[in-house]
Write a structure and sequence with these properties.
heterodimer, A: Arc Repressor Mutant, subunit A, two-stranded antiparallel sheet, elongated, B: 4 domains, twelve-stranded mixed β-sheet, eight-stranded mixed β-sheet, 28 strands
Chain lengths: 112, 867
């Protein structure tokens, strides 16, 4: 079984899929990440992350209707699964929890 | 029109991409392309290409779906393939048989060459540790170039070289004292001539000639002899020969100490007996000191892993190469013994080939002939594909995958090739005795031992794949819908151009081989008909004995009573056998030069017996005219070499004899025609110093003359069997390799022509078949027979022309290379080129016409109505 460990890019893509619901597909995800995080990724990279997440069970997918802009091809629409939602929550929780444990002192930079 | 992404990139994507993922990947890529294309088309294209390349990942790549198709290769299917193969064979038996026959003789050709080549390469490898045995060669500088001899001084001392374990000096030869008369027990007047060697003790420890019986070190004792199994049987039958005493040359007693196994056929060293040097010293009457100054073939055995270069270096150190030789500018070389058989020609001290050249030629020919057979197979298979198309269509429609169709056709080709292979193996076994006769050398009949079967099997698999792959891929690519809707083009399948280029290859190979063998025959013809400058036909050379020479004049008179005998004379060297001799000097000869002459010492009637033509001066007379000097007759070449303005009366020295020149004769060849003619000096010697006498008789009287000669011989030498050679035979022996090669090449020429004809027949049948309708329609509209036939042959004319354009320069180059190996050769026979070309064209056209006529003679309405 693939571990449920979530990589940084994977987390970003997973979040984007959530944001774009119900229209998350390859190019859309790529654009959204560029817009929100300022990171320009190659489509193939996005694609491989999406399939990896699907393999891990965080996403499911279905094919949409054919569209003109893709030369009559269908899109693969990605949706979050329950496991995906849990993974996002866990990641979010872990971050907040750990962030809160940072001593106040360490975050005060005035004296530098 | 909407902009489109670069086609090749798109195709590449479709090609590699896993079909399941293709739609979304291609979709994404297209979407990005259209979006970017709004800004710039160039940028969009580049972006698209970049994306396609980035998508090229392991995960996205199409993988074979073998996992799913394994189950489809069932035994039932294999059985079906086999049956279909068989049915196809039955349906077109002539075609299939031709195909099979072509492949079989192609294989046969390749097998015979493989056997011959491996036989040649097996020479001298049966000795244990054969890679540590070296032959010592001597390169002597003469006039700035090196002459190479396989000789080393008897006294050579290799004890200073640590790698050398052992050394043996071997005295080989074809005449006395190597060829001796042995008398079988109880028959003192009969002679069995056997050939042996003289060597020192280490002979049997360096070379692997196993001692079957007796002393394992037989050459230690000075009066011992080791004899071969064969010789033991000839002399003593089934009796045990060990310990028996036999006489050498009727006066030296030696004891048989050992019997050794006959040398295998692939040994360069062959001998019936071996004796120690003490015997040959006695026979020659030389002292030890004299003997040590001689040079003979010498072999050294070294420790494992010593290199020839290092050994050569060590052989030339002053410890080994004495001062005397250094002064004569002689260098030694350690040469691997096993390479001597194939590479023994040296030019200016450097290796320059030998039999290996013929090996290369024949390996090339074998490969080409096999290639021709494979091409036939491919051509026939693709040309006939139309007839198989329906079958493929149905197979595909009922769910056959491409893989299984490929498998089917490959297995078909394997079955055919296997059958051809089996037939060829049988043919090889059957033809081996004839092949041996052709080679006049026995190749081992046990070819199925050792590595040869593996080479054969490997060759079979390669051929099966080469023959099967292309048709299999072409036929499996048919689209079932098109086939079943009868939309297949009548063109057959596979590109027509490919089929034609394969035919070009075939025709050019066979034209090339025809030309080369023609040139070879022309040259051999040239050699055998070349006027050597003296008579060699109707001449017999007889080995003399002491008693014969003591009564030589009486023998001569006896023979001359016969009207058929033209002349009888003796000499010390055979004019057919070039023996370069540097012991000729004349007053104006520059110091320190070594110019090679042929010096023939002979009796007075020798020049007239061998038919030399006198130019100037006089012939020898029966009685010597000058009591002070010997007399000499020289050739015009010799006059030129010596630079004499007035040769008659000049004094020269030949082998220590002071001679006066009394005559000049026309030039004659004493060296084989590969080499330049030597200047010749004939001088008188006593009968007793001659090595053979020659008898020339009237043409057509061979039988009665031979009877007369042997009668006279019996009269003067009752206790010996006459030993004689026809000069013509000895002459042919000089060109044995060339004659053998020409016979082989004739065989392979015939085979290649047959295969080419099969190829043309196959393709033209197909051509006619597919043009039947067209031909009939043309006939109906009033085209003449000739016009239709021209139409058929037009296609082949271009093929023929290209084939000729390739074949002629290639054949010219190879033939020229071969001819240049002869100092004297025929001019390039240009007429051969058009002749071989037109012969091939004629055959091709004939085949096409015959097949065309068959169709044309049928009523065109019948042909047209049949559909």
């Amino acid at each position: 079984m693939k571990g449920t460990y979530l990589g940084e890019l994977e987390e970003l893509v997973l979040l984007t899929v959530g944001i774009l619901y119900p229209e998350a597909y390859g190019v859309g995800v790529m654009d959204e990440i560029e817009k929100q995080a300022g990171r320009s990724l190659n489509i193939s990279a996005v694609h491989s992350v999406l399939t990896r997440l699907e393999e891990k069970g965080f996403l499911t997918s279905e094919m949409s209707d054919p569209t003109e802009e893709r030369g009559g091809r269908r899109k693969r629409i990605f949706l979050l699964t329950a496991a995906g939602k849990r993974a996002l929550e866990e990641a979010h929780q872990l971050r907040t929890q750990m962030f809160n444990q940072i001593p106040k002192m360490a975050l005060q930079f005035q004296w530098v | 029109m909407k902009p489109q992404p670069p086609r090749w990139a798109d195709r590449f994507l479709v090609w590699y991409c896993n079909p399941i993922l293709l739609e979304e990947i291609q979709g994404d890529a297209y979407e990005l392309f259209y979006r970017t294309a709004k800004e710039s088309r160039r940028k969009a294209s580049l972006y698209y290409i970049w994306n396609v390349l980035r998508f090229f990942r392991w995960k996205n790549i199409r993988r074979s779906r073998q996992k799913n198709t394994y189950s489809s290769f069932s035994t039932a299917m294999l059985k079906n393939f086999f049956i279909v193969t068989l049915r196809n064979f039955m349906r077109q038996p002539v075609h299939a048989a031709l195909n099979l026959f072509g492949l079989s003789i192609g294989f046969l050709c390749a097998f015979l060459i493989l056997l011959w080549v491996s036989h040649e390469f097996s020479f001298d490898r049966f000795h244990s540790g054969n890679n540590t045995i070296y032959k010592i060669l001597a390169h002597a500088e003469v006039e700035g170039t090196y002459q190479t001899y396989d000789l080393a001084a008897v006294s050579i001392d290799v004890s200073s070289i640590p790698e050398v374990e052992n050394k043996v000096t071997v005295i080989e030869g074809e005449r006395w004292p190597n060829a001796l008369c042995f008398r079988p027990e109880g028959k003192p007047n009969e002679c069995i001539y056997l050939n042996g060697i003289y060597a020192n003790e280490s002979l049997f420890s360096i070379f692997s000639f196993p001692i079957l019986e007796g002393d394992t070190n037989p050459l230690k004792e000075p009066t011992h002899i080791a004899i071969s199994e064969d010789m033991a049987e000839k002399l003593f039958g089934l009796e045990d020969p060990i310990g028996k005493v036999i006489k050498i040359d009727d006066h030296i007693d030696v004891t048989i100490a050992a019997v050794f196994a006959n040398a295998p056929v692939n040994s360069t060293l062959r001998f019936d007996f071996a004796m120690p040097f003490s015997i040959i010293k006695k026979l020659w009457g030389t002292s030890d000191g004299q003997f040590d100054s001689y040079a003979f073939t010498t072999y050294i055995k070294t420790t494992e892993g010593s290199s020839a270069d290092v050994l050569t270096q060590k052989l030339n150190t002053p410890l080994v190469l004495s001062e005397k030789f250094r002064k004569q500018k002689i260098k030694y070389q350690a040469y691997p013994f096993t390479e001597w058989r194939l590479q023994n020609k040296f030019e200016n001290g450097k290796i320059a080939g030998g039999r290996i050249e013929y090996i290369y030629i024949f390996v090339a020919i074998g490969t080409l002939v096999l290639l021709m057979a494979v091409i036939n197979f491919v051509n026939m298979a693709t040309a006939r594909a139309t007839t198989r198309a329906k079958e493929i269509g149905i197979r595909k429609a009922t769910g056959a995958l491409r893989g299984s169709i490929i498998f089917q056709f490959l297995s078909e080709s394997f079955i055919t090739v296997l059958v051809a292979f089996t037939v060829a193996v049988l043919l090889t076994q059957l033809s081996l005795p004839y092949f041996n006769q052709l080679l006049s050398e026995p190749i081992s009949m046990q070819w199925y031992k050792g590595a040869i079967p593996f080479y054969m099997l490997f060759g079979m698999i390669v051929v099966a794949l080469a023959a099967g792959l292309y048709p299999a891929f072409v036929m499996s690519s048919f689209q079932p819908v098109k086939i079943l809707k009868n939309q297949m083009s009548a063109q057959g399948t596979g590109s027509d151009r490919l089929r034609k280029s394969l035919l070009v290859v075939q025709l050019s190979i066979s034209i090339g081989i025809i030309i080369f063998s023609g040139v070879m025959y022309q040259q051999l013809n040239f050699i055998t008909n070349k006027d050597m400058g003296f008579e060699r036909s109707n001449t017999v050379r007889v080995e003399p004995t002491m008693r014969i020479f003591n009564n030589f004049d009486a023998l001569k008179n006896e023979l001359k009573k016969n009207s058929s005998i033209i002349g009888v004379a003796a000499s010390n060297s055979n004019p057919l056998k070039g023996e370069p001799n540097i012991n000729v000097s004349w007053p104006t000869k520059p110091e320190n030069t070594r110019i090679a002459f042929q010096a023939i010492g002979c009796t007075y009637d020798f020049p007239s017996t061998i038919g030399l033509k006198l130019k100037e001066g006089r012939d020898f007379l029966a009685k010597t005219q000058d009591s002070l000097y010997n007399e000499a007759i020289i050739t015009e070449d010799a006059v030129k070499t010596m630079g004499l303005k007035q040769p008659l009366g000049e004094h020269i020295n030949v082998n220590g004899n002071d001679c006066v020149i009394i005559g000049v004769v026309d030039n004659f060849h004493t060296e084989p025609l590969q080499h330049a003619r030597l200047p010749v000096v004939l001088y008188r010697v006593n009968d007793a110093h001659c090595s053979a006498f020659y008898v020339r008789y009237q043409p057509g009287t061979t039988k009665q003359s031979m009877a007369a000669i042997s009668e006279a011989y019996k009269k003067f030498e009752p206790s010996y069997t006459m030993k004689y050679w026809f000069q013509d035979d000895s002459f042919n022996e000089l060109y044995k390799t060339e004659i053998t090669a020409s016979r082989l090449i004739l065989l392979f020429t015939i085979i290649s022509v047959i295969i080419a004809i099969i190829g043309v027949v196959g393709l033209s049948t197909f051509n006619v078949m597919r043009k039947t309708k067209e031909m009939s329609i043309r006939r109906v509209f009033g085209a003449s027979m000739t016009q239709v036939l021209t139409l058929l042959s037009r296609e082949f004319s271009l093929v023929m022309l290209i084939a000729v354009a390739i074949a002629i320069p290639a054949a010219w180059y190879v033939a020229n290379q071969w001819l240049s190996g002869f100092m004297y050769h025929t001019p390039m026979p240009w007429w051969l080129f058009p002749v071989s070309f037109s012969a091939m064209t004629l055959i091709t056209l004939l085949i096409i016409f015959i097949q065309g006529l068959k169709t044309l003679s049928a009523n065109p309405t019948k042909v047209l109505r049949s559909e």
